Amino acid sequence: MALMPVSDALSAVLAGAEPLAEEKVGLDAAFHRVLARDLAALRTQPPEAMSAMDGYALRAADADKPKARLKVIGEVAAGRPFDRVVGPGETARIFTGGVVPEGADAVVIQEDTIAEDGHVVITEPAIKGRHIRPAGVDFHQGMVLLQAGRRLSDRDLSLAASMNHPALPVRRRPKVALLATGDELVMPGSTPGPGQIVYSNGYALRALVRSEGAEAIDLGIAADTLEATVAGIRRAREAAADILVTTGGASVGDHDLVKQALEAEGVEMAFWKIAMRPGKPMMHGRLAGMRVIGLPGNPVSSYVCAILFLVPLIRSLLGREPQLPRETALLGRDLGANDSREDYLRAQLDKRADGTLIATPVTQQDSSLLGNLALSQALVIRPAFAPKASAGSPCEILRLPL
Ligand SMILES: Nc1nc2c(c(=O)[nH]1)N[C@H]1C(S)=C(S)[C@@H](COP(=O)(O)OP(=O)(O)OC[C@H]3O[C@@H](n4cnc5c(N)ncnc54)[C@H](O)[C@@H]3O)O[C@H]1N2
Ligand code: MOO
């Protein structure tokens, strides 16, 4: 199979990726879940005109000059409305959140009053409408305030509660199973033998998967045998994974068995090898409802491919806009001409005093270097065959998650 352009590979990965089924969860559990349907307010907020202050509700015309003396006809507290009309020369004691009684069109704060026996003297002129929150000033019943596809923030939960929804329709979380491959891998904290490598890439990938709102299933490390790799693929199916992510064994070496194992299990391969750097040997295929993303083993390659393909796939399954936003920055250093592979260069971001973003690619771009991946805040995207570019010229960037 020929190297596929990145945009074609992304289209193939996202082809037919429909949002998963919806489920209803309580408000607290809905944090960072993706709303499955537009959410309309079930009530008007505030339902009636309410006082924003503790004070006196009155007719502004009765107290438009200082020292007006009004008769106190009763008290209105939050949740305890008052059924009388405030007539001329009258006032009602009112507290914050109290329903403004009929007849009253202003509230004077209590600091601007002097209480006298059964009366109150208003020391500052009243202003019509002052300290009153009109009915529906926040929202009206039926208004759609939260759209389908929105990832719910902490503030959204309070808004939904205020709209009177005790539970919200959200998308089921995609199940993402991660299977590492490689005889050489040992777990962090162990004492690696000669030539052994500490397993690392699954940690970033699982954290990324979870932060994208999917469920990460760790299938551990498969040895470089067809049987072990096939067994891992079967475990992903048994776990009803929506996505199987494999790492390593994607290249052309004698021990790179992932493609062979996937095909043996009946995975229909859509592509193998992309015209990009890092990440060239990435592959993609499908087996019934399970989508497979075979990532290269080099830790930077696996992470960059996950940002470019896995994140958009998860977002599509959640009904979100798949693409991560791209921005423009200025190059912080000169770059040579690019070859036939689209380049994703780890870069550090700085902001000039005038707000201009400067993206400086780190000098070492080898795909095994996790140190400079961790220090980078963005990827600079260089199209295939881009001519050389000097410092200060514009470039496209993709910010890495914090
Ligand atoms: N003759 C060719 N050789 C290679 C090509 C090629 O086109 N022709 N492509 C290179 C590119 S580009 C990449 S990327 C790598 C990807 O190879 P694999 O996907 O087969 O990955 P492995 O060989 O299994 O591992 C590569 C490297 O990464 C380490 N690794 C693997 N998994 C993990 C893990 N979970 N945590 C930490 N480190 C891991 C592994 O030990 C290797 O050092 O192929 C090139 N070769
Ligand atoms: O594509 Mo590989 O990911 O360059 O190292």
TrEMBL record:
<keyword id="KW-0479">Metal-binding</keyword>
<feature type="domain" description="MoaB/Mog">
    <location>
        <begin position="177"/>
        <end position="316"/>
    </location>
</feature>
<dbReference type="Pfam" id="PF03453">
    <property type="entry name" value="MoeA_N"/>
</dbReference>
<dbReference type="InterPro" id="IPR038987">
    <property type="entry name" value="MoeA-like"/>
</dbReference>
<comment type="pathway">
    <text>Cofactor biosynthesis; molybdopterin biosynthesis.</text>
</comment>
<dbReference type="InterPro" id="IPR005111">
    <property type="entry name" value="MoeA_C_domain_IV"/>
</dbReference>
<dbReference type="InterPro" id="IPR005110">
    <property type="entry name" value="MoeA_linker/N"/>
</dbReference>
<keyword id="KW-0500">Molybdenum</keyword>
<dbReference type="InterPro" id="IPR036688">
    <property type="entry name" value="MoeA_C_domain_IV_sf"/>
</dbReference>
<keyword id="KW-0460">Magnesium</keyword>
<keyword id="KW-0501">Molybdenum cofactor biosynthesis</keyword>
<keyword id="KW-0808">Transferase</keyword>
<dbReference type="InterPro" id="IPR036425">
    <property type="entry name" value="MoaB/Mog-like_dom_sf"/>
</dbReference>
<dbReference type="InterPro" id="IPR036135">
    <property type="entry name" value="MoeA_linker/N_sf"/>
</dbReference>
<comment type="similarity">
    <text>Belongs to the MoeA family.</text>
</comment>
<dbReference type="Pfam" id="PF03454">
    <property type="entry name" value="MoeA_C"/>
</dbReference>
<protein>
    <recommendedName>
        <fullName>Molybdopterin molybdenumtransferase</fullName>
        <ecNumber>2.10.1.1</ecNumber>
    </recommendedName>
</protein>
<dbReference type="InterPro" id="IPR001453">
    <property type="entry name" value="MoaB/Mog_dom"/>
</dbReference>
<dbReference type="Pfam" id="PF00994">
    <property type="entry name" value="MoCF_biosynth"/>
</dbReference>
<comment type="function">
    <text>Catalyzes the insertion of molybdate into adenylated molybdopterin with the concomitant release of AMP.</text>
</comment>
